[in-house]
Amino acid sequence: MRVELVRRASPPALARALAPIAALAVALGLGAIFIWLLGRSPAAAFDVYIRSQLTDGWALTELAVKATPLVLIAIGLSFCFRASLWNIGAEGQLIVGAVVASWLALSGLGSSPWLLPAILVLGAIGGAAYALIPAILRVRFGVSEILTSLMLVYVAELLLDYLVRGPWRDPRGFNFPQTRLFTDAAMLPTFGDGGRLHLGVFLALVAVAVAWLVMSRTLFGYRLRVTGDAPRAARFAGFRPTATTLTVFAISGAMAGLAGIVEVTGQIHQLKPSISPGYGFTAIIVAFLGRLHPVGILAAGLVLALTFIGGEAAQIALKLPFDVTRAFQGLLLFCVLAADALVTYRVRVVSTAGKLA
Amino acid sequence: MARQGNGEDRELDAPPLVAMRGIAKRFGDFVANDGIDLDIRAGEVHALLGENGAGKSTLVKILYGLLQPSAGEIAWEGRRVVLDNPVAARSLGIGMVFQHFSLFENLTVAENIAAAMAQDLSLAAIAARVTEIGARYGLALDPERPVWTLSAGERQRIEIVRCLMQEPRLIVLDEPTSVLTPQEAERLFETLERLRDQGTAILYISHRLEEVRRLCTRATILRLGRKVDTLDPRAVSARQLAAMMVGAEVGEVRADIGPAGAGVLEIAGLSLPPGGVHGVALKDVSLDVRAGEIVGIAGIAGNGQSELFAALSGERRADHAGTIRIGGVDVGLDGVNARRALGAAFVAEERLGHGAVPAHALSENIVLTRHAESELTWRGFVMPAAARGLADRVRKAFDVRAGRGDPAAATLSGGNLQKFVVGREMTRKPRLLVVNQPTWGVDAAAATLIRQALVDGAKEGAAIVVISQDLDELFEVSSRIAVIHDGRLSPPRPVAELTREVVGLVMGGGESGHAR
After folding, report:
1. Integer angstrom CA distances of residue B101 from B56, B105, B153, B384
2. What is the rounded radius of gyration, in angstroms, for the C-alpha atoms of chain B?
3. Contacts of A212 in chain B (CB under 8 A)
4. Does one domain contain both B388 and B424?
């Protein structure tokens, strides 16, 4: 007996659309089993992870705040993934973008209204430059961008760690590994009661709209789709793969860098050894769960943000480690990829027992 | 049912070697085989004829145990058998020579045969068997030669020897001459005739009617999954056979091209390193093509055709700007879009994945080669309505039969997609058109339409280069023919001065036709 995957002639459109939702449902089911095996009540976990988060005003604000970096990064990654280029190092680009922009924020330059825009632009430039390293290695020497972009994450983390413990450490910070707090001019304006909802949320919404326009209406979006679906056809169309690779890596790096500096200027207001709970990696799941479509990414960003805040609440209420959240995120990615595979292919079991009449 | 050809009545009483009865095969809603009967007798060469998609491959895969029929049965010497897998088929004595070779380039002939053998034989023993079989059937092969040094004809001989080592009683050959020169094909026929005379049954799949009439005493014709008839192919004309395959009269191309005009494409001393590990380098290729003429480039697959196409289209750049000139402009260092802007158009060999994106709709695929035109784009934005309109115009002008709405390229049949990608370029009224294998794997009606479109394009003043393995096609449409062999291009000569035999000799590297 052997199992084969047979490509479906034309996958039903409805199944394509519903696949991420089915994946989410299966992941929730598996997560419930997982929690039950850990000796907790799945019903209580559902209450803590999801229900209480969606009924509480503060939690809803927090959802938007947490979804912001995820959506920004995933929008950038969708450009790469569309073209079948695999930037796995958004986490590193997020850190470097935040570091480069923080240099300006900490430079003590007055309170010009141009300071904040300049900081944000610098964050994007820093992330883009860092993302170009694996891109250039790929186009120049054929190095796998998956490995280099991933490994550069650890380089970035160590760079940040060095800076906040060494040269950039706050002299009046009681030896804590952190920089000085940013000045008010270098902080994102906030809205609402809690003062948590910041301008970055709107940047994420703008990014969704612009990405939708670019992907579906422009020749550049067309170029990415052709490159991803049929690379030889892309060359035949005159789209040079080198230029495509460099451009999409720069875009995704810029978006990750922007997410990094938005997080720092909007929430943390200083640099610390850890400025992200793994947004750069979780955004990969967001991009796929959102089917690389900007609106889908917006929805998926909110779902994954929920796992973050639900996970924080579960640590307190259920004494479940944060690793459970990470494990659930990984489970969700597997379910999404499996759902996609099952929509595209049909599973067939073939009998191999031979007989000769 | 079957009309007997010559006086072979000795077989009439004995059961046929293989009898397939009422074979049906369904893939979902699609019926690939519908109640097909086929008898093959010992000592006959039986042709299986049909267009692409007629159901030939499905039927043969069922016979070789690769597919299971949805209905019907198979009898071997009158005894009913179930062929679950190729091992079962081979143990009965059915051998298969596939159209595409599965050989390891870096291994020798003997090693390749050893790799495919079920029994454990020493290399020396295999080499001895290869030499012996070669001598018996006229299949000269040196067991020590590495495969990458061999021609397509020699590679095919390995496959045949490999098949003969199992001492089969029925050999199935799938389009065996598609990669051979006329001379190599003639040698293959002699081998097959010897096998036939020794009592081996041969099922010969082809769409080349002249060959079938030369070699086969019976032919079974399939169309749209059903059997049309089994008859003696020598008793009817090639045109009648073609009509039975297509189900309608096949039109003829009117190739009344006038005198050529000014030079449009000039290639001067083009050399290019090989495209891949087993690619072929272009060596000092020169060619002039004038407005209003079709220059055919003949050659066996893998002699530099893809490299030449890539160099002409600009997917690969030449060393010097002046090596390739279009309309008097140096374009050797320019990319494909710069060349298109000068009025050049290109049709790639592979429709899916090169000439078109399989998963994209036709209106998206129209943008692939025409996005530089102001009609389809505005300041970096694609105009979907304009693209849809242009795609519809191409579909109408080239009789592209596709599903309703705006279907994906992958859902079209080979012939219809080829009409679309040729039409996409022809409707631009190009000044220069370079086509690689214009009718490869295309049904006869579509092939005629495409060839007529090429001839009409030349009549309207386009300079056209047709790269093709199909000599009949080249003789039908070309004004002049050049031959590419091992990356070198012979000087083109007017068709009136050439015969298929002369071109065949140069294709095999016999007489290069130019000074070295």
Report:
1. 19, 11, 11, 43
2. 24
3. none
4. yes
Closest residue by Cα to residue A274 from A87, A74, A98, A75? A98
Interface test with A, best of B368, B375, B424, B436 (most A CBs within 10 A): B368
- The three-state DSSP-derived secondary structure of B293-311 is CEEEEECCCCCCHHHHHHH
* Cα A357 from chain centre: 59
Beta strands in chain A (DSSP E): 2-7, 190-191, 197-198, 345-350
Write out chain A residues lying below 8 Å of B336, CB-based: 235-238
d(CA B456, CA B464): 11
What is the spatial distance between Cα B410 and Cα B357, in angstroms, rounded to a whole number? 8
DSSP state, A319? -
- Render each residue's pLDDT in chain B as its tens digit; 516 residues: 344 444 444 445 578 999 999 999 987 777 889 999 999 999 999 999 887 778 888 899 999 998 899 999 999 998 999 998 888 898 899 999 887 778 888 889 999 888 877 777 888 888 998 888 888 887 888 888 888 888 777 888 888 888 888 889 999 998 888 777 778 888 889 989 999 999 999 999 987 788 888 899 999 999 888 999 999 999 988 878 888 887 766 667 776 777 778 899 999 999 999 876 667 899 999 999 999 999 999 988 778 999 999 999 999 999 999 999 999 999 999 999 999 999 999 999 989 899 999 989 999 999 999 998 778 888 899 999 999 999 999 999 999 988 788 999 988 888 899 999 999 999 999 999 999 999 887 877 888 899 999 999 999 999 999 999 888 889 999 999 999 988 999 999 999 898 888 888 888 776 544 433
Interface contact B317, partner A, CB < 8 A: no
Tell me the C-alpha distance between B145 and B383, whole Å.
Answer: 57
B319 falls within a domain: yes
3-state secondary structure B14-44: CCCCEEEEEEEEEECCEEEEEEEEEEECCCC
Q: Rounded CA gap, B76 and B168, in Å?
A: 13
Give me the residue label for tokens 């670019």.
A214
The token pair that represents A192 in the structure block: 């609402």
Q: Hey, are the CB atoms on B88 and A217 less than 8 Å from each other?
A: no
Separation between Cα atoms, residue B482 and residue B494, nearest integer Å: 9
Asked if residue B185 belongs to a domain, the reply is: no
Q: Count chain A–chain B contacts defined by CB atoms under 8 A.
A: 82
On whether residue A327 sits in a domain, the answer given is: no
Whole-number Å distance between alpha carbons of B266 and B181: 28
Does B85 share its domain with B204? yes
Phi-psi region of B327 (alpha: psi -120 to 50; beta: other; left: phi over 0): left
ipTM: 0.83
Same domain membership, residue B516 and residue B455 = yes
pTM: 0.79
**Where in the sequence is the domain holding B15, given as residue range(s)?**
1-93+169-176+196-246
